[in-house]
Task: structure prediction
Amino acid sequence: MKIIGLVFEKISIEKKNAIKEKTEIKSGLSITDIKKEENNLSDKDALRFDFSYEVDYSPEIAKVELKGSIITIDDKGESKEIFKSWKEKKVEDKIRIPLFNFIMEKCNVKALALEDDLGMPFHMPMPRIGVRAQTQDNKDEKNKNNKEKNPANYAG
Result:
């Protein structure tokens, strides 16, 4: 299955109340529907996976909601299996995991930008740079390397 596009149909953020000390942030992603899609790019089946992604700031503080569709080309002939499992509102892991990873990549970036615009705390931790604690072995190695580079009689 090849992903050929993602389209947002709803982008919403609402801040209802001020951030509290005990704010709980939860996010969720779900596939809401699967349909055949018209396809002018290939003779293979195209599928449309509708999704909903939400970030909820509790209690009643804010909500981010993103809804959209991801379009795929069925290059492995998996459409019948997908529709069969979808009758029970299930998507097999081999299909769901790559789709969710792609959707989350796009939605997390969009949600972070929206949260920043409203001055909300981010729903996921951002990477941080910090000072690494040095052990005595690291200090001894660093001193040894410095002495080799700069001998005692070095005048430069």
The chain is about 30% helix and 35% strand. The chain has one domain: 2-117. The helical segments are 79-86, 93-117, 136-149. The radius of gyration is 25 Å.
